[in-house]
Design a protein that fits this description.
With 275 residues, this protein is mainly alpha-helical. It is built from 7 helices and 4 strands, in the order H-H-H-E-E-E-E-H-H-H-H.
Length: 275
């Protein structure tokens, strides 16, 4: 049947051309953005999964930052403890010198003067802070080590551990020490030995905390990499495959445009039947 009211061929060609144009624009959008999914229409299920993975990635980054800050806190804390150890070493030396029976009363007074000054220095160490948080003054800190917040680690040897307490463990035992006599110096030497032992334990605990958090940070870095890879497989565009699709749609657009023009021209032949 020959009809002049309806050009089915032109309608079909127009429909196919419109579909091709939509696909072409979608392909261009994917290649220009780098994402396979640019709207929920592209892949509703994939978009939902990607959103959850993206949130996990951001939480992992934030958790890793918190762990790194905690390690910085511990490094600063260990620096203070190291200096406290140097002070205690000097105090032990003074106590040994004060036990020399050849030293006069004035010598002992001089030793004791420095000894008391060093105790004051230890007191000042106990007041050190890191971003307004006590460094060595019995502060319990719990560090989040997993992106979902379910895993934490308490500084000071883990859950149930003892926080570093320079003031309580060291200065309180040394305050009563004097170097005014050989006997008093011997007693002070015992205090210092105990304090050095306690300080060694605190530094060992600090090192254990740093080791634990370093591994936690490594795990977060690995998890972040794996989450990014998983998210990339869902949302990122395959440039090679999409470029092939773009070339295909370009050809279809050109041929569709030509066929639409051909279909519109075909109705002109009907006029010949009317002449």
């Amino acid at each position: 049947m020959i009809s002049i009211n309806t050009n089915s061929a032109a309608s079909a060609a127009s429909y196919n051309l419109n579909k091709t144009n939509v696909n072409l624009q979608r392909s261009l959008n994917r290649l220009s953005s780098g994402f396979r999914i640019n709207s929920s229409f592209d892949d509703a299920g994939g978009l939902a999964v990607s959103m959850k993975l993206s949130a996990s990635i951001r939480r992992t980054e934030a958790t890793a930052t918190g762990v790194s800050n905690a390690i910085s806190y511990l490094e600063t804390q260990d620096g203070v403890l190291k200096l406290a150890g140097n002070v205690l070493t000097r105090m032990a030396e003074l106590a040994t010198l004060a036990q020399d029976v050849t030293k006069s009363t004035d010598d002992l007074a001089n030793y004791d003067l420095e000894y008391q000054t060093l105790i004051d220095q230890l007191d000042s160490f106990a007041d050190e802070k890191f971003n307004a948080i006590d460094l060595v003054a019995n502060t319990t800190l719990s560090v989040v080590t997993s992106e979902d917040g379910t895993q934490t680690y308490d500084l000071g040897g883990g859950t149930g551990g003892t926080p570093v307490d320079l003031d309580g463990v060291i200065t309180s035992t040394l305050t009563g020490g004097l170097l005014t006599s050989t006997g008093a110096a011997a007693t002070a030497q015992g205090f210092i030995t105990t304090a050095i032992t306690e300080l060694g334990l605190m530094r060992a605990t600090n090192g254990a905390d740093q080791s634990r958090l370093t591994f936690a940070g490594d795990l977060l870095a690995v998890n972040k990499t794996n989450l990014e890879a998983a998210n990339s497989r869902i949302i990122d565009v395959d440039v090679a495959a999409e470029s092939t699709q773009l070339a295909r749609f370009n050809i279809l657009q050109q041929s569709g445009t030509a066929m639409l023009a051909q279909a519109n021209q075909s109705s002109q032949s009907i006029l010949r039947l009317l002449v």
